[in-house]
């Protein structure tokens, strides 16, 4: 078996079967097929819920948006737009620096063999697409958790109305029901624990903002985006946990910014969670994957962790996609399954393709 490889790439998406066909007049292409939610199906096969970013060809100062069941193109005045990033349009002249997107994201279920070595089926008929005004710019970055007898999936829903976290539920991980918004503030990485603790459901969250209050000089921690915790009685209503979760450590700049990666799974030592740390530099920073084990009864307590990355960006994996690449320094881990003597970990590589990595369980000790 392969240990570290790409399993799904932009050219694997059949745009003739895209949900945008017949509902969008503009010509599009696949900007990326990446950041997959990941779980094991009742059949034993694996499911990747792939984020497909479908972009405008020759976008220029145009952006793509869902509106009442159709996909429309907005034309922005050239003197009001910074279009240097192929993914976004920065609208200038406003104090709040709003963004528009040159692509719109939808979710494509891709079924893999039980060992993750090959694609068995691509379920275009079960794609998850924008369905409400709060998803006008798309549905992004799914995370799938198996909780009891059901699967739950968090997604980031993007629109001019809000940047929020939405929840889907399923009894078989194939037919999903949108439950609506569960976190209304800006939150990019909500991960629901695969099981309860203390009779409650738990989740990791990562609120965004522009103001961070400093720790005192010499403190163990660094101010900035961190991984918080929340609890819920029903998976729909979430209360922030009073104690802090995982925080950027002052001893390393590699985690100057951090966010959740894989939904925490229960091991003999506690809850295993993989998360991303971002070192300043390159285009958007250098994204790497790290691990921590959290106490099974109080996940605010870290039992074990490492400053050494578990997974690094691998530009060689996307070398054959050089003409499509715009990032080289990003691995964004989004899912994990138990595969016996190892874990199989799913990531987005370079905001472009889906990567699978086998991690020996002895590596996390």
Tags for this model:
globular; mainly beta; 26 strands; 4-stranded antiparallel beta sheet; 5-stranded antiparallel beta sheet; 45% strand; 365 residues; single chain; Tachylectin-2, Chain A
**What is the CATH homologous superfamily assignment?**
Glycosyl hydrolase domain, family 43
What is the 3D shape? globular
**Ends distance:** 23 Å
**What is the CATH architecture descriptor?**
5 Propeller
Structural classification: mainly beta
Over all CA atoms, what is the radius of gyration?
20 Å
Please indicate the count of domains: 1
The overall pLDDT, averaged over residues, is: 94
Question: How would a crystallographer describe the biggest sheet?
Answer: 5 strands, antiparallel
Family: Belongs to the glycosyl hydrolase 130 family.
Protein name: Glycosidase
Pfam family, one: Glyco_hydro_130
InterPro entries: Glyco_hydro_beta-prop_sf (IPR023296), Mannoside_phosphorylase (IPR007184)
